[in-house]
Amino acid sequence: MELGDRFEIKLPDLTMQVGYHIINNDEVFHVVFSDGRPELVLHEALSGGLPFWTSIPEAKHRLKEVAYFGARIAEHLKNKSYVLL
Predict the structure, then answer these.
(1) How confident is the model at residue 82 (pLDDT cuts 50, 70, 90)?
(2) Rounded to the nearest 5°, which phi and psi values hold at 44?
(3) Domain edges within the chain
(4) What is the pTM of this model?
């Protein structure tokens, strides 16, 4: 992926517009949702050698969303099934 690339992930009940950025040498993904929920900025981090998804700033009340949508991004990138916009 190139800095500034954008792609779309279609889920059964919503579409995610995802932008790829580098901030402080970390890959981050800016996510805009089609259903109007607040945007998220997601980053895959490591804790004790295990990867996990977090939001910037941390949104403790949205932890399940962060993990779910982060996993959808990882799945799309792994499968290279995203379409650049």
Answers:
(1) very low
(2) -90, 120
(3) 6-84
(4) 0.85
Using a 10 angstrom Cβ sphere, with 0-12 exposed, 13-18 middle and 19 or more buried, the burial of residue 43 is middle
End-to-end CA distance of the chain: 12
In this structure, which amino acid lies at residue 63? Answer: L
Return the exposure string of 68-84: e unless at least 16 CB atoms fall within 10 Å of the residue's CB, then b. ebbebbeebbeeeebee
Q: Which residue has the tokens 């941390």?
A: 58
CA angle 46, 81, 47 (to 5 degrees): 5
DSSP structure string for 40-76 = EEEEEEEETTEEEEEESS--GGGHHHHHHHHHHHHHH
Who contacts 33 (Cβ-Cβ below 8 Å, separation ≥6)?
14, 15, 16, 17, 39
